[in-house]
Each structure stands twice: as structure tokens, then as C-alpha cells.
Amino acid sequence: MTGSAPEPALNQEFKRYDQVRKAHAYRLAEHKSDRFDDDYEIATLDLEPFLRGDAGDRARFAEAFGAALREIGFAVLVGHGVDGALYDEMHDNVLDLFTSTSLEDKMRFRAKRHGSVAQGYFPIEETSEIHPDLVEGWVWCRRAFDIPQDRAGPFRAEDYWPRAAYERQFRRLALAHEALFKPIAQAMLQGIGCDPHAYDEKLTGTNFGLRANYYPPMSAGQDRSGAARLLGHEDVDLFTILPATRVDGLQVWNHESRAWVRLSAPPGSIIINTGDYMQLISNDLLPSTTHRVGKPRDGSHLAEARVSFPIAVYVWENEMLEVLPELGPPRYEPVKAVAFHTRSTSKFYGDGYAVDSA
Fold it and tell me: Is the pTM of this model over 0.90?
């Protein structure tokens, strides 16, 4: 990506793949004509009262959390109990993984669909077939970790990792965040007037996707090309947990102002956003909000790498996604997670990616 800027692709060109309502239009990559809403502040909330407090504390947090997510689909959480030192270690581990592993070795783990999710390594400019972006990615789901799960045969780290030490390092993050899956879901559901425990069973030992992203410094040519660091998209999951990054760039679509919001979260905090699964089961009450990674205003993208390590919270492929009973006449029919997920992500990986729900 060193030439002139390509024609800007629009999300509505791929509308046929969407499994929930997404009426707004936006360019997939950042563009000079984009508007930014610099006055809007995404809510920062303290999760500790929900984790440790009484019923009143939990209710107050759930109300504030639900309100923030209904408004924009994003919130920032502090007081979540995960040691910030783990995030510092993970930052260094991600850098080491991408910069010390040869491309030949990375390509041994080239991403392909397993179940619902494309798992493995994504080379730069190949995160999606529909638009180039300037990030290398690597996705590991539950099967890539030596943790309790149904498995046919012994666990072999070498099947998923270039070095076994990475599995042990990344497993610490996966387990720390898995402990938050149910509390966060409970707060979301309580905050929209639903049974907070409706998904407790589904989220016990459920599948997830831990993704490591490495954004190398951009060359001057890449900077001029119009390519994004990560194209605009919505997550296909219940919700995503993203530890705050050291380098800015996350941009969130504000449906009300029809402009982008630059999100810069405090060190050690986690960013939560709701995905397509959640939009369906909440009957459109909690939006699957568009976001992307663009260029930070300080110009550091020309000299500094950016890393992130979000974890997407799924349910297993055979689970049914259906509107929660408290939320009135359903706008969506019940659907198996595998069909819903792969129909939606065919947008990124091609029409042959979708699988039947049978």
C-alpha cells in the first residue's frame, strides 16, 4: 500500500451479510472528510461495586452500565480486578510474538475457519478480503489453550503456537478475563431489565477468541495511501473485552451525532463493547457499534508500533441465539450461533465461509 488512495469502500456495499440491523453508512477506512465528535465522552465506570457490593450497589452499576451501552455500545471499566502488570506483560509478549517469529513460521498457522471462527495468523493487509488494513493479527479460541474443555485427545501447544511458552503466557490473560465473562454479562442483562443470570450456563466454559494485533509503524507511503490500521467493523460476539492500549487510535461511531469519537482509556482499564450476538438477543436495545483503528493525532503511527489484545466472548456453535423474553415482540427469529456467525463474517472471508445451521 504505497500508491495513491483507493476508492473508499462503504459498509453498505456489504449489507447483505449483516444479520442484525445496521442502517448507517460509513467508510471502512479513515478518510479526510470524516467528522469527529470531540465533545462526546464514553462513560468510565467502576465495576468493583458490582463484583463486591450488595444488591443496591449491583443495581446502580447495572443501570449506569446499561445506559452507557444503550447509548453508544461502549463503556470503559475500572475496578475490574485484573492486575495492570498482566497487561504490561501482555503488551511485551505481543510485541515479541510478532517481531521475533519469522513470516515462514507464522504462516504455518495461517488462519482458517474452525467451528464459527477464523483462527490462526492473519498477515498484514489480509485481515479481511474486502479492504486492506495495516495490521497483523493472530486469533486463538478455547481449543488453543491448556484449560478445561471437551477435547478429543491430549493438548498439544505446538498445534497452535510457534513456541509453547506463548501458550502459558497468553493463558494467564484468557483465564483472568474468563472470570469476568459472567459478571459483565449479568450487569448488561440486569441493566436492560432482563434476568441477569439468563446466560450464566451458556457462559460457563464457553468459547472465546483472544486476538493479538500488531500494527507496525506506517511508512510515509502507507500514510498517504488511505489504508486504515484496522477497518471499520462491528464485532460478531456477545461483547468484547479490550485492555486499554498504550498508543491511541480507537475510533467509535456515534449514532446520534453521526461522527467518530476518539476513545482514549486510562491505563489498566478495560474497554467493553457489545457485538452482533448481543444486539440480536437484546432486540436491538444494545447496539453492535462500529469501530476502527485510525491514526493517532500525535502522529506516532509513523514511528511507533501499536499492539492490542482484545478477547471476544462467544457462545458455542450449537447454542441458539434468540431475543430475551422480557424485551417484547422479537425483531429476529431464533438462529443457531454457527449460522449467524458465519453468515455475518462471510463479509470478511468470502461467501464460501458460511455454514449451514443443521
Answer: yes
